[in-house]
Amino acid sequence: MEKIGIFCSASENIDKMYFESASQIGKWMGQTGKTLIYGGASLGLMECIARAVKENGNRTDNFAQVVNSNLPESFTIQMPIFKGMQPETIEVETFAQVNGREVAFVLLSPGAQATLEDLRDKVIDEQLKQIREIAPEIAIIEV
Q1: 45-88 pLDDT, tens per residue?
Q2: 10, 26, 49, 60: which sits with the fewest CB atoms below 10 Å from its CB?
Q3: Is-contact 66 59, C-beta < 8 A?
Q4: Which residues does residue 99 pair with via DSSP β-bridges, in sequence order?
Q5: What pLDDT is attached to residue 32?
Q6: For residue 52, what pLDDT is reported?
Q7: Closest Cα to residue 40, out of 49, 32, 52?
Q8: Alpha-carbon distances, residue 19 vs 52, 64, 137, 141 (angstroms)
Q9: Which of 80, 69, 70 lies closest to 120, judged by CA?
């Protein structure tokens, strides 16, 4: 095992024996070539282990960096924007928001708002056309 993930207290307000143990674990990891994967907190036991790993010759990987490095930058999907319509091809960018151990994935489509507005307008125009054909006596005022 080359990489070890550790998540522990980021508090400074705990017994010193835990800091000594954390330092020993970090020292062992650094000296034996292990890479620390952690949540990125720079205080408490997390900082203690990370510092000991770095001081003893090896590296650390911040969890947020690890999560983001394993996500594709973007991908495409085909789906109908409105029920009953033809599928549209949409490019989606991916982002991860990492808060400690909580990871939220954010999907964002560049130009999505403009695309959705264009499609909405087409749907509305089509619906108005159908209404005019069925009931030409109904007055429709577009604003």
Answers
A1: 888 888 898 899 877 766 666 566 667 777 787 877 777 778 87
A2: 10
A3: no
A4: 102
A5: 92
A6: 92
A7: 49
A8: 11, 24, 81, 72
A9: 80
pLDDT value for 38:
76
Give Cβ neighbours of residue 57 (< 8 Å, ≥ 6 apart). 30, 31, 33
Task: Give the tokens for residue 1.
Answer: 């095992």
Q: Which residues does 103 contact at the CB level (< 8 Å), separation at least 6?
A: 67, 96, 97
For residue 22, pLDDT over 70 is answered with yes
Q: How long, in residues, is the chain?
A: 143
Phi, psi of 89 (to 5 degrees): -90, 125
**Is pLDDT of 21 > 70?**
yes
- Tokens 């006596």 locate to 137
Q: Quote the CA–CA distance of 64 and 30 in Å, as a whole number.
A: 21
CA distance linking residue 64 with residue 5, whole number of Å: 12
CA pair distance 96, 103, nearest whole angstrom? 6
